[in-house]
Amino acid sequence: MKQIRVWDPLVRVFHWSLVLGFGANALVIDDDSKLHEWVGWFVLGLVGLRIIWGVIGTKHARFSDFPPSAAAAMDQVADMARGRRRIHLGHTPLGALMIYNLLLTLLAIGLSGWLMTTDAFWGVEWPEELHEAAVAWAEISVVVHVVAVFVESARTHVNLPRAMLTGVKSIPER
What we know:
By secondary structure, the protein is mostly helical. The protein contains 6 helices and 2 strands; from the N terminus they run E-H-H-H-H-H-H-E. The protein has a single domain (2-171), classed as Transmembrane di-heme cytochromes, Chain C (Fumarate Reductase Cytochrome B subunit), CATH 1.20.950.20.
């Protein structure tokens, strides 16, 4: 196995902090509580930090390393259907689309949550409906993301969860 340092500490701390923050707000914390709001602000801060790091960060953290591409995603699906194993050092094309999906969804959750606290939108239905729909979409996306990580780990023989813990991908020698 070839050991390649891929995920820097900021990316890993962001990822696991986001898991904890979003998971707590979605599954544990009462959504009418002040703590829910504070954790929401924390999650929004994390997303803001990740967006900045996506521009100025390390090689594989930069958005330029994983641009959204439907064509590349379809190529990855074709590889999977044909049983071809292509190793991606950073995010896979499908993984890139999921990252953009999750970041945008979390921004929608944060914006709609904030709107619900303003005088202008107090009692207005659509921000709450948007908030709930975006949370539901995020929860579905997280489940798809986790399943995909384990499927892709088994398919490529690269332990992706370990890489997100250690920062190092163990790539099988060809």
